[in-house]
Design goal:
Structural class: alpha/beta
CATH class of the largest domain: Alpha Beta
Radius of gyration: 24 Å
Mean pLDDT: 88
Shape: globular
Largest sheet: 6 strands, mixed
Number of helices: 11
CATH topology of the largest domain: D-Maltodextrin-Binding Protein, domain 2
Number of strands: 11
Strand content: 15-25%
Low-confidence stretches: 1-5, 21-29
Helix content: 40-55%
Length: about 325
């Protein structure tokens, strides 16, 4: 005998109705995004160049979004602490992260604890970190040609600074150049540009490849010199320093810096954030700040940014296998 009341709703109908209500609420919340402060996780400590850049952008982004962009520094473990925090966040647009090649690049002997393409949403790229081949001010190498000719004449006698370590982009870049030119240079790994530039000034190495962010002040102070840019296009403040393209090479250090979030971010959230950052990057004050920092602007929307990351990962994999720095499975 059926004893179920005939005038009410079934449990199944109630559950379905609740689910529809929650979905509608979520859609409305996404449409109104953002309605509360947004956390931006940075994998470097306060005072770092990237931290300073983001703290400069944050109030400008707030003016557009109407909500604060709160900087949350999580340094350590080569960025893994920060990147895993971004990965584990709810995909609602209220936890973002600064992403660089460290996000998707394996370290020698170790694989990343996540899938860089599957576990993140790439929202937009903002700029790139420009690198240069640098020598001490009193170095006998006045030009890139001088360095190459010496390397061919005296094999194995030239050492160079490879920061932030073997298997990273600067190291693989120099090894590919050495292979092309048939020279043998000895890489000396350093944890960062501060260590490698100190060694360079002290005469412990012949040259290094470091970001302009970390070396331009030393060049302007007359302690270091640039002999080549590790990129295809000239840097605005250093138009007389030849680029890899001008020197006849097809390889560069490609080091994009962008904004991402956990996998599964809604499309309208991605579009809202991307539009806000694009507008900020077009502001004259921000353009001037990036130019002063030798940080070339390079805005890319989500699809192009993800493609860049995918291409960067493949190029890195090929070079890592070629030079024996492939991570263990």
């Amino acid at each position: 005998m059926n004893t179920r009341p005939t005038g009410g709703i079934s449990r199944r109908q109630a559950v379905a109705g609740l689910g529809a209500t929650l979905l509608a609420t979520r859609v409305v919340a996404q449409a109104d995004y953002p309605t509360r402060p947004i956390k931006l996780i940075i994998f470097l400590p306060p005072g770092s160049m990237t931290d300073t850049l983001m703290r400069t952008l944050a109030p400008e982004v707030q003016k557009i979004l109407g909500q604060p962009l709160i900087i949350d520094n999580k340094p350590g473990a080569s960025g893994l602490i920060a990147f895993q925090a971004v990965k584990a966040a709810a995909p609602d647009g209220y936890t973002l992260g600064v992403l660089t090649p460290s996000t998707w690049r394996d370290s020698p002997g170790a694989k990343l604890p996540y899938d860089p393409l599957r576990d993140f949403t790439y929202i937009c790229n903002l700029s790139e970190t420009a690198f240069a081949i640098t020598v001490a001010a009193d170095s006998p190498f006045k030009t890139w040609k001088d360095l190459i000719e010496y390397g061919k004449k005296d094999q194995d006698k030239t050492s160079y600074g490879a920061a932030p370590g073997l298997g990273q982009s600067p190291h693989l870049f120099i090894e590919e150049i050495a292979r092309t030119e048939k020279v043998r240079w000895t890489p000396i790994p350093y944890k960062g540009a501060n260590e490698s530039t100190t060694a360079l000034i002290g005469g412990q190495i012949a040259f290094s490849i470091d970001p302009l962010l970390a070396t331009s002040s030393l060049v302007r102070a007359g302690k270091l010199r640039y002999i080549a840019m590790a990129r295809a296009e000239p840097v605005k403040n250093w138009p007389d320093v030849p680029t890899m393209k001008q020197l006849g090479y097809h390889i560069v250090v490609d080091s994009p810096l962008g904004i991402g979030g956990p996998a599964g971010l809604p499309g309208n959230v991605i579009a809202r954030l991307s539009s806000a950052f694009k507008t900020v990057l077009e502001a004259p004050s921000i353009i001037e700040m990036l130019d002063r920092a030798d940080q070339p602007r390079r805005f890319m929307e989500a699809a192009a940014y993800r493609q860049l990351v995918q291409r960067n990962m493949e190029e890195q994999r090929v070079l890592a296998e070629r030079y024996g720095t492939k991570p263990n499975s």
